Amino acid sequence: MAKNPPTLPADDATSPGGDPSPEQDKDPDEQESLARDLGEELTDVFARFVRGDVDFADLTFLTFETLQDLHVIASGAYEIEFDDDDAPDDTDHYDPAEATDQQEDLAQEPSRS
After folding, report:
1. Would you say the pTM of this structure is higher than 0.90?
2. What total of structural domains would you count in the chain?
3. Residue 70 lies in a domain
4. How far out from the chain centre does Cα 18 lie?
5. What is the pLDDT of residues 31-66, one digit of tens each?
6. Residue 112 is assigned to a structural domain of this protein
7. Residue 105 pLDDT more than 70?
8. Which residues pair with 14 in a beta bridge?
9. How confident is the model at residue 86, as a pLDDT?
10. Which candidate, 16, 47, 31, places its Cα nearest to that of 80?
11. pLDDT for residue 20
12. What is the domain range of residue 29?
């Protein structure tokens, strides 16, 4: 079951000082899990930078974006949304060819394999 990234809070969800106000209590284990997921994504971006697959400007942007997401998770001002396509389904099977096609579409370039 895939999770979408946390939704950033709306402008009205921030206090006058700019700090997100917690909209509701969140499960600390869920928040920790989301933070760990962000850490793994950031680790992957760092490794891609070292390999030369990501330039410094993109690395900087992705790092800042991840820190923003982490702040939202820590504040509890997020909602996890599941797409209908992400819902568990007994008939939903992984197809490597279809996954490669989807990644090529998203990357807007052919697979390197």
Report:
1. no
2. 1
3. yes
4. 22
5. 999 999 999 999 999 999 999 999 999 999 999 999
6. no
7. yes
8. 20
9. 59
10. 31
11. 46
12. 11-107
